[in-house]
Amino acid sequence: MKIPPLPIHSGQGDYEVTFPPTVADLVSAMLAVPRAIVVIDQNVASTYAAVLEPLLSSRPTLLVSATEEEKTPLGVTRVWEFFQRSNATKQSNVLVIGGGIIQDIGQFSAHNYYRGLRWHYAPSTLLGQADSCIGAKCGINLGAFKNQLGVFHSPAHVWICLPFLETLSDVELCSGYGEIVKLHLTRSRPEIFRELANTVNTDGWRNESLAKFIRQSLEVKRVVIQEDEYEGDIRRILNYGHTFGHALEAITQHCIPHGIAVAWGIDLINFLAWRRQLIDESHFQEVHVFLARHFAWKLPNGFTVDELIDGTRRDKKVADGKLNLVLPDRIGGLRIVPTAYDETLVSDVGNYLARYNVVYWD
Fold first, then answer.
1. What sections of 239-323 are H helices per DSSP?
2. CB of 237 closer than 8 Å to CB of 336
3. pTM (2 d.p.)
4. Can you tell me the distance from the alpha carbon of 159 to that of 20, in angstroms, rounded to the nearest whole number?
5. What is the C-alpha to C-alpha distance for residues 107 and 139, in angstroms, rounded to an integer?
6. Domains by residue range for the chain, with CATH
7. Which pLDDT tens digit goes with each residue over 288-339?
8. What's the number of CA atoms in the CB half-sphere (13 Å) around residue 168?
9. Fewest Cβ atoms closer than 10 Å to its Cβ: which of 73, 163, 213, 245?
10. DSSP 219-251
């Protein structure tokens, strides 16, 4: 089935998301981009070596490790040095192939080289295809804290090649579905989430509706980013689940995949919304049952309530000593609620961890 292009309006220049049916079709499209240099996940380059060979053998190429340690100023410096070795100019086009980490590294590097190079993106993970590929935002880590350095830099084009997903592990697919769940609970109708949940419950991660779920996710995100491209107001709702999800990633040294941490963060946030009477118990339980069934994750070590809450204090959403939490008021409806670091927050988070926690350890 041919998937129609998805146009995105951006203050930095409009762009399109297109859906090449095969990796060979993607390569053909990339070969048509002039003055191109390639930044690619080394595992993707290895897995698809034969079909990518016409591109990687004819364009300057940098293989990058998709690790949080590489998504740092040091990792970005290695990309800048590659640009120099490749004699990149202001007219160069950077082709970025990989998941969200490679996107962040390539996008951040392109933005800062010669005050901005055009970059094009082919996400190779479900997380990248269903969420991060549009919206212009990227971030890299500083020390132990995620995404503290960031920019807004729209791509020139996005290619979503679904065959990349065939070689992903179940854990990688699960992580991608964390962001799909987030977007299906954001500015969406309840039946949209329920169709997603019922399909995954019946057919698992690898189902015939996955392309539709990706498209629906991007359509939801498109509405939000076109209304508030630079996160001045309503776009902050896309951080649903991320405040505590990022804190969990940090205090566990990133041993939990990002999308699974986000799903866990959504569950915790929904519990806080229930405790604050923004939603009723049935709303919390409906989503919780699905998340607990599909996103449970074993940690090598535990953590305390204080460690988790302390992990949110460097979050970009902290203002005037308060957390701007994204809380649901219905399925498909979110609001931003300034929340004090007080005993109520400590008590509520502690109750969630004691009674409903989706992550566990020995």
1. 242-251, 258-275, 281-294, 305-310
2. yes
3. 0.93
4. 7
5. 9
6. 6-167 (3.40.50.1970), 170-360 (1.20.1090.10)
7. 999 999 999 999 999 999 999 999 987 666 767 789 899 999 888 899 999 9
8. 24
9. 73
10. HHHHHHHHH-TT-SSGGGGGGTTHHHHHHHHHH
